[in-house]
Structures are given as structure tokens and as C-alpha cells.
Design goal:
The structure holds 3 protein chains of 3 kinds.
Chain A lengths: L1 H19 L7 H23 L7 H19 L6 H23 L4 H21 L1 H4 L13 E3 L2 E3 L21 H21 L2 H11 L1 H7 L3 H27 L9 H14 L6 H19 L3 H15 L3 H5 L2 H11 L9
Antiparallel strand pairs in A: 1-2
Helix pairs in contact in A: 1-7, 2-7, 2-10, 2-11, 2-12, 3-4, 3-5, 3-10, 4-10, 8-9, 8-10, 11-12, 12-13
Chain B lengths: L3 E12 L2 E12 L3 E5 L6 H9 L6 E6 L2 E2 L5 H7 L1 E4 L11 H14 L14 H13 L15 H13 L5 E5 L7 H15 L3 E5 L3 H7 L2 E6 L2 E6 L1 H6 L1 H7 L9
Parallel strand pairs in B: 3-8, 3-9, 6-7, 7-8
Antiparallel strand pairs in B: 1-2, 1-4, 4-5, 9-10
Chain C lengths: L20 H36 L6 H19 L1 H22 L9 H23 L15 E3 L4 E3 H23 L1 H11 L1 H6 L4 H23 L9 H16 L4 H21 L6 H13 L14
Antiparallel strand pairs in C: 1-2
Helix pairs in contact in C: 1-5, 1-6, 1-8, 1-9, 1-10, 2-3, 2-4, 2-8, 2-9, 3-8, 5-6, 6-8, 9-10, 9-11
The chains are: A mainly alpha, B alpha/beta, C mainly alpha.
Chain lengths: ~350, ~260, ~325
């Protein structure tokens, strides 16, 4: 069965991933960070790759998710620290946020859409930055230990590392913490969801709307609702990603809501491959590897990242993954001669 | 008048100071084949766009089966049964001919919005049925697997009609369906429209007068955004004011 | 990348200590002038942005990079040869960079989707930012004002630094010059017509390509010039490009994409909005411009003076 094969192979890949990157300088913590950020990138890809909407504001959902999760533990329910509660509150809040903002934002197109998402993101950035009472402003929230994961009768401290087991050039099993296993399971679920969505009726219609919105409206689809749904899903995933990041790093700062952070998700996804399932994850991995490993070797790593980004856009619009598929090659050619669509009346 | 399937009262559309349509009191009975003609710039396409919901009216009301649909946007009008085929064929170029119709059928079956993120549309049996039916009507069934963007111009226009048909409309608006077609294709499309007119109300914009006169139950003439005359083909042919409006205008064939 | 250095730190969500009407009034002239100066910076940047969009239908996320390059080039040249030299070399260097950028990369994206344009120009902006960071280091640099202009000038109702006054006068003069160019020269005519209908101008034989390149270089040079000229007022670091780009988009949205006077009015509005809000509610001074931008986008996306033909759902 195709689905079974997908889940099995993906699970295997996720399990091997932290060890596979060890010989080139990777480590367990990096692998965990990549998966966490990858969740937001995958959400962004739904917006850009499938709905055709470039949002420059994903960081607001990401950052707010992180703050709400950490505040739940440290301020809202300090006597009752619960991992699931922190995640649930963060996700619920961000989903509501995405719904409200999305309703306003999906009325616009192209540059206006991007600018409005940017405007909202900046608003949230400054609110978080200035609201010292709640968010500690510039200092951010720090040192908030993540509550253990409650799973039925068990209470699992996610910072526990796996027992030691030497894997030669691939490191040691103890380099990994339970955190990675948890995040890997979440990632598996997210990938499975996205895979299903893309080939689902919803995905089919979203693609149609992207291809010809006027026609889609005139066969009876409501484009705004579909775009809103995509926006909310992307926002929710970004919020989940942010919440996990906050709990994992035990800290968060306003820089999680900057234009730069929003830009990061754009870069990860485009480099990895828009409109591919694993592209955003690959891109996130590639760039974060650059950020964490190459940065130790040279100061020019961000420059390399920028050049790579431009190179991909110009020469490989399908991204790294997109180019290595038949469909991707056709997309590259199609993009090369593509003309801007007429504006919708 | 009260059992008109589609009617407008005082309908108008202004773009700034320019009135593309004004004071249009229009009414069509169910099952009619009504042609809308007029010199270029008369506002015919604007009128259809107002009916279909592509643009919103600045004045007046539109009623469909007695219900006021003026504030509704295009998707809701399609859901109620008003479909439009475009002047320049507006289809999904990278999808197959079949998929183009399937999408329209999908909208008809699943509605304005369906958050179905797990199952594919293939589970809805009706969708394929409706799509194939629409393709058969326009005789594009043999090209079902062809990429829509690769079709000839005439075939694209027929696909456009098929897509409109796949929404199972009660009122079909055809905007210059035979423009740019070869004589042979025109004949085929003429037959198609006659067939469709038996099953639904058809509104037709065309410049091919021979075709219009032969096919229509009645004709509405627009001139400078207003209704100039209405009547049977014979009445319109004899109408002096209509002939006057056309002198200096652009038509094919004689009135 | 959060925006220009926050306007003086104060306790957030609290009125200034001295919140009597008198206190506010006494600070008002200074803040108004500050807002005017800041607004002029925005105007100069936004002009290039809006004209390029109007004429080339191009969204240039790299426009902030022009400002940053101008600032650094101006800094380097001025440190060795004086401020005047810096102010001459900086815009020329930036204009040259812009032309190369256009010919080598950007022109292939003229007819692409706005999304593709945003992405590629964003990428280039990133490359520029990081190159500047690598070459000049990440620390903030500031330029010493020439002695003659570092004295405060007595304006009657308040004292105000001479340099800022000179800056304001200079920018106003240049804006007027640009306007004269667009209104009264043949290239300017092509620009204005091109903003309305690019294809028609080409059909009529106007050299749109050349005019486009000139316009692009002009906008870039303007941003570079103000980058150099403003560096004594606002300090310079590699993130400056994006710091000024984002508010510039606010300006362009409020004023109307493609409108010359829209950029002027928008820039002054945004500058003053920031300054005046600092006086009354300092914590909100940065947020308020984005609220304004969101409101404009939602209510009238074409902005104050933009075309009504706008891409809306």
C-alpha cells in the first residue's frame, strides 16, 4: 500500500537523519531544530507553492506561538505546568489569530497581499517588543524549563538523552534526546497530513484556484474561503513550530517575529523546492546546516545563503528537490517563459 | 413577466463618469433563447458580466427565479444556476480537457467551499459523470486526455462551454461563442446551441447576424449601454432605429 | 531589521513623565521638525520605489540595499575626502550598481509574476546586506558632521541642528529637480506615459527600455544619495537596508504605488506620524505606521493618490 510505504520510509529517514548528518558536522540538537523549523516551512509551502500566496509574515505566528507556549508555563499556569496545555493554548491562539488576519488579508493579491502580511507581522513584532510587562521586551523569556510530556501514566522528560551506543562515524545514540523522537513523530504527522491534503479534493481545488482564479470563481468555488483555509493552516503550523521551538530552547526573544525570520521561511522553502512535499524540509535542513555548521568555518555563510537563494530563483525555480523530478524540469522551463497573469476584475 | 427566470430592473454599471450600462429593464422566460446584440461598445459584455456576477452593478437589481441576487458575487450565482462562457476562452491551460470539466462538476457537487483535506475528489462518482456528459454535449469527448492549453482555438471555446455546462446551469450566458471559428465549427456550434436551448435558458451575444436570426426566439438590442429595442427576429430586422444604430457599426451579414 | 532605531527609549504604554499639555507643546516644534526630516528620508527612498513600480511594474525589495550601499560608500569616501565628495560619489556608485543589477539580472523578471520579482530582489538585497556586513563589519558606524554644520540654528520658536536643516533643504531641492525632470523633459514624458501605458509608448516609438534604465538608476541614485546624506543623522549598519525598506513600503502604500506626489505626501505623513506618536504614546510610535498601512490596504489599496485600478479580490 502506497501510504504505508510512505510512512515507513519517511519514519526511517527521520530516524536515520541525525546520524547521517553527523559525519559532516551535524549533531542531535541541530537535527531537532531543523525538524521544528521545518514544520513552519511546510506550512509556508502550502501558501506559496499551492495557493500561490507569498506571505511575508509567517514569523508573527511562529513567534506568538512560542511566546504563548512559554508564557503558559511561566505565567498563565505556573502551578500547573503542562506540556500539552502549553502547545494547545499556543496553537489555539495562533489559529484564531490566523483566522482573523486571514479574513482581512485574502482579499488582496500579489504585492499587496505580501505587504499586508508584512504590516501585520511588524505590528506584532513591535507589540511583543514593547509590551515589557508581559514579554520582557528585548530580553525575551528565558530559562523556562519545558514541563515533562504527560502520556497516560508516564511522565517523560524530553531532555533525557537516549542510552549511549557508539555508532562509529555516525556519532553516539546518546547525542539524541527524547525531544528529537517527539518532534520526529510530529513531523511525520505533518508530512502525512500535507501529503494527504495535496492529493485531496481541497488540494485539487486550491491548485485550480491558483492556476485560474477567475475561472474558479465562475465555476462555483469561493476562492477567498480556500485561500483563507490555506492561510490558517499555514499559520497554525507556524504557531506549532514556534511553540515547539520555545519549549525546546526554553527561551524566546522578539527576533522570532522579525522580517528576517519571516524571510528565513521564504528562503528555506524556495531553496528546498516549492510545490514539493519534502522540499521545505530539505531547504530548511540545508540552510540551517549552513547557518550552524558552516558559520563556524567562515563568516561568509549568510552571504553564501543569499547567493544560493538568488541562484535557485534564477536557475532552479523548482528548488533543489523540484529540479530533480520530471515535473520539476518542466516547471523550470515553464517558469522561464511565464508571463504575468491578467489582474482579476 | 413575474415568471421570468432572469430579470433586471434599472440595471446600470458606471466606471467613474462613463456609464457602460444604464437603465436596463430586462427579462427572459425560462427556456427562451435570447440573443443580445448591438454595435461594438454597446455594453453587451458588461451586461453579461453583471448578470454572471463578474462585476457588481452600481445601480438597479437583478432577480433570478424571483430571488434578488444583486449583491451576490460570482461563485454564489453559479451555485444558483447562472453560468457564463467567455468571449476569449477561459480555461485551465495546464489541466486536461476532462479535468477542466471535472473541476466545474466538482464545484456543483461539493459547493462553494469544502474542507475535504483527506479524501480525493475521485470518491464523488457524480463528478466524472457530469464531466463526461458535458464533454459529450460539445463533442470533445475524444480529446478528454489532451492538455487544454494545446487545443485549437475553436476547441478551446467549446471546452469553455463544456465547463459552463458542467456546472449544470439553468441559465447559460454565451459571449460570442463562434467568434474566430471556421465555417464548419460555426455550423457545429450552432447545432450545439440549438440543442442546449431545449434544455435550459440560453442568452447569447453574437455578431453573426445570419446565425442570430436563425436561432433566436427573441432579440434584445443594446446601444450605448441602454436597451434600444426588443422583439422577435422579424421585428428587429424591420426596426429602423436598429438599422440606424448599426450603420457605422461593425456587423457581419445583413440585418 | 526592526525599523529605524526606535525613537528614544521610554517606558512603554505610558505617557512621558512630563505629560502636561505644556510639556507636549514645548517639544512639539522639535518633533515636528524631526518628523519632517525623517519624512524626507522616506520620501527620497519611496520616490525611487514608486516610480520604478509605476513604470516597470516592478516590485523591488532590493531598494533598501541602494540606501545602504549609498550610506557605506558615502561614509568611506567622506572619511577620506570629505562630506561633499561622499555626497557626489555615493549616488553615482549606487546608480552604477543599479544599472548593472538591472542589465544582468532584473530585466529578465520584468514580466514575471510579482511573487518572483519580490523573491529575486529580496535575495539580492540579502546578498548586498551580507556583503556589506562581511566587508565593513557588523558594528554601527556613524559619520561625524562637519564642524560648520554641527551648530544649532536658532529658528525663533526652537533650536535645531544646522545639518538637519541643510539636509532638509537639500532633499527638497532634489525632489523638485526630479519632478521638473519628469514633467518637462522628453525622457520624463516617456516615464509619465510609460506609467500609464507601457505598450503604447513602445508602439509610439518611445525608447522605453532606455527610459526605464534611466528611471531605475535615478531612483537608486536618489536612495543612495539620501543614504549618504542621512548617515550623520541616523547611524549606519548592514541591516540599514531593510530597516528603511519596510517603512518605505508603508509610504508607498499610503501614498499610492506609482504616484510621485503620493510618495512625497506619504513620506511626510509617515515621518510625522512617527514623531508625533512618540510625543503622545511612545510605545506605539512604530506600530502606528503599520496600522496605517494595514488600514489603507484594507480600505483603499490604491492609496491616497494611486490609480483606482488595483488588484483586489
Amino acid at each position: 500500500m502506497k501510504a504505508l510505504r510512505f510512512y515507513a520510509l519517511t519514519a526511517l529517514g527521520l530516524a536515520l537523519f541525525p546520524f547521517a548528518i553527523h559525519p559532516i558536522g551535524g549533531y542531535g540538537g541541530l537535527a531537532t531544530q531543523i525538524l521544528i523549523a521545518g514544520i513552519a516551512s511546510i506550512g509556508f509551502n502550502l501558501l506559496l507553492g499551492y495557493a500561490g500566496l507569498l506571505s511575508y509574515g509567517q514569523a508573527m505566528f511562529y513567534g506568538v506561538g512560542g511566546y504563548v507556549a512559554l508564557l503558559t508555563v511561566s505565567r498563565f499556569f505556573p502551578q500547573f505546568p503542562n506540556f500539552w496545555l502549553a502547545i494547545a493554548l499556543a496553537v489555539a491562539f495562533v489559529t484564531l489569530m490566523a483566522f482573523v488576519i486571514g479574513t482581512l488579508v485574502v482579499r488582496l493579491y500579489g504585492i499587496y497581499f505580501a505587504l499586508l502580511t508584512l504590516a501585520f507581522a511588524q505590528m506584532f513584532f513591535f507589540i511583543v517588543f514593547k509590551w515589557r510587562d508581559l514579554t520582557q521586551g528585548d530580553d525575551g523569556l528565558q530559562g523556562i524549563a519545558s514541563p515533562p510530556l504527560a502520556l497516560g501514566p508516564w511522565s517523560i522528560d524530553l531532555t533525557t538523552s537516549f542510552p549511549a551506543f557508539d555508532l562509529g562515524p555516525f556519532g553516539n545514540l546518546s547525542d539524541l534526546h527524547y525531544w528529537y523522537a517527539f518532534v520526529a513523530i510530529v513531523m511525520l504527522a505533518v508530512l502525512g497530513f500535507m501529503r494527504s491534503l495535496v492529493s485531496s479534493q481541497f488540494g485539487e481545488i486550491l491548485t485550480a484556484i491558483r492556476e485560474n482564479e477567475e475561472r474558479s470563481a465562475l465555476v462555483g468555488f469561493d476562492p477567498r474561503r480556500y485561500k483563507l483555509a490555506a492561510f490558517v493552516i499555514a499559520g497554525t503550523l507556524a504557531g506549532l513550530s514556534g511553540a515547539l521551538r520555545g519549549l525546546y530552547e526554553t527561551s524566546i526573544a522578539p527576533d522570532a517575529l522579525t522580517v528576517e525570520t519571516s524571510g528565513n521561511f521564504v528562503i528555506y522553502t524556495v531553496i528546498g523546492g516549492v510545490k514539493t512535499l519534502f522540499g521545505p524540509l530539505v531547504g530548511t535542513g540545508l540552510v540551517m546546516y549552513l547557518q550552524n555548521v558552516i558559520s563556524a568555518k567562515t563568516d561568509a555563510w549568510r552571504l553564501i545563503e543569499g547567493i544560493l537563494f538568488v541562484a535557485v530563483i534564477v536557475f532552479l525555480p523548482g528548488g533543489v528537490l523540484g529540479t530533480f523530478s520530471r515535473k520539476g524540469a518542466r516547471t523550470v522551463l515553464a517558469r522561464a517563459v511565464r508571463v504575468r497573469p491578467e489582474s482579476v476584475p | 413577466m413575474s415568471d421570468a427566470i432572469l430579470e433586471t430592473t434599472g440595471l446600470g454599471k458606471r466606471f467613474g463618469a462613463f456609464a457602460a450600462n444604464s437603465d436596463i429593464d430586462f427579462s427572459v422566460q425560462e427556456g427562451e433563447l435570447r440573443a443580445v446584440i448591438g454595435p461594438n461598445g454597446a455594453g453587451k459584455t458588461t451586461f453579461f458580466n453583471l448578470l454572471a456576477g463578474v462585476t457588481q452593478a452600481t445601480d438597479g437589481e437583478i432577480r433570478f427565479r424571483g430571488e434578488r441576487i444583486t449583491p451576490l458575487r460570482a461563485p454564489r450565482r453559479v451555485a444558483r444556476g447562472i453560468a457564463k462562457a467567455f468571449q476569449t476562452a477561459n480555461i485551465y491551460p495546464s489541466e486536461t480537457v476532462l479535468q477542466n470539466c471535472r473541476l466545474a462538476a466538482l464545484a456543483r457537487v461539493s459547493g462553494l467551499f469544502a474542507f475535504e483535506v483527506f479524501r480525493s475528489s475521485r470518491r464523488l462518482v457524480d463528478v466524472d459523470g457530469i464531466a463526461h456528459e458535458a464533454l459529450e454535449l460539445v463533442e470533445l469527448e475524444p480529446l478528454a486526455g489532451v492538455r487544454a492549453g494545446d487545443l485549437s482555438h475553436g476547441d478551446k471555446k467549446r471546452l469553455d462551454i463544456a465547463v459552463a455546462l458542467a456546472t449544470k446551469p439553468r441559465v447559460l450566458l454565451l459571449d460570442e461563442p463562434v467568434a474566430g471559428m471556421s465555417l464548419d465549427e460555426v455550423r457545429k456550434t450552432d447545432g450545439l446551441i440549438r440543442g442546449l436551448a431545449k434544455r435550459m435558458t440560453v442568452l447569447l451575444i453574437e455578431h453573426d447576424m445570419t446565425m442570430i436570426m436563425g436561432i433566436s426566439d427573441s432579440i434584445t438590442v443594446l446601444h450605448q449601454g441602454k436597451i434600444l429595442a426588443e422583439g422577435t427576429p422579424a421585428e428587429i430586422r424591420a426596426n429602423a432605429r436598429v438599422q440606424e444604430a448599426y450603420l457605422g457599426g461593425h456587423t457581419e451579414g445583413h440585418l | 531589521m526592526q525599523g529605524p532605531a526606535p525613537l528614544r527609549g521610554r517606558p512603554p504604554f505610558a505617557l512621558p513623565e512630563d505629560s502636561t499639555i505644556d510639556a507636549i507643546l514645548s517639544q512639539l516644534p522639535g518633533q515636528l521638525l524631526d518628523g519632517f526630516v525623517r519624512g524626507l528620508v522616506y520620501v527620497a527612498i519611496a520616490l525611487g520605489l514608486t516610480i520604478v513600480f509605476g513604470m516597470l511594474r516592478l516590485v523591488n525589495f532590493a531598494h533598501g540595499a541602494f540606501y545602504a550601499i549609498g550610506a557605506y560608500v558615502g561614509l568611506v569616501v567622506a572619511e577620506r575626502y570629505g562630506l561633499a565628495a561622499g555626497l557626489i560619489v555615493a549616488p553615482l556608485a549606487v546608480a552604477l550598481f543599479a544599472v548593472v543589477f538591472d542589465r544582468v539580472l532584473l530585466r529578465f523578471f520584468y514580466d514575471k509574476e510579482p511573487t518572483a520579482q519580490i523573491l529575486v530582489t529580496f535575495g539580492v538585497a540579502l546578498v548586498v546586506q551580507e556583503s556589506l556586513r562581511l566587508y565593513f563589519g557588523g558594528t554601527t558606524r556613524s559619520f561625524p558632521i562637519p564642524a560648520a554644520l554641527s551648530v544649532p540654528v536658532n529658528l525663533g520658536f526652537t533650536q535645531y541642528p544646522a545639518y538637519r536643516l541643510a539636509f532638509a533643504v537639500g532633499i527638497v531641492a532634489i525632489v523638485l529637480l526630479v519632478w521638473l525632470f519628469i514633467q518637462y523633459t522628453s525622457y520624463g514624458l516617456i516615464v509619465r506615459a510609460g506609467i500609464r501605458d507601457r505598450t503604447m509608448v513602445q508602439l509610439l516609438g518611445g525608447n522605453v527600455a532606455l527610459a526605464s534604465t534611466i528611471v531605475f538608476a535615478l531612483g537608486a541614485g536618489l536612495a543612495g544619495l539620501v543614504g549618504a546624506a542621512a548617515s550623520p543623522i541616523y547611524s549606519v549598519d548592514p541591516d540599514t537596508g531593510f530597516s528603511f525598506l519596510v517603512p518605505s513600503f508603508v509610504v508607498v502604500v499610503i501614498g499610492g504605488l506609482g504616484s510621485f506626489w503620493g510618495a512625497v505626501i506619504g513620506g511626510l505623513i509617515v515621518g510625522e506620524l512617527q514623531s508625533l506618536t512618540t510625543l503622545v504614546l511612545p510605545a506605539a510610535s512604530d506600530v502606528v505606521i503599520y496600522v496605517a498601512m494595514a488600514l489603507v490596504l484594507l480600505v483603499r489599496p490604491s492609496g491616497l493618490l494611486g490609480e483606482s485600478e488595483v488588484i483586489r479580490g
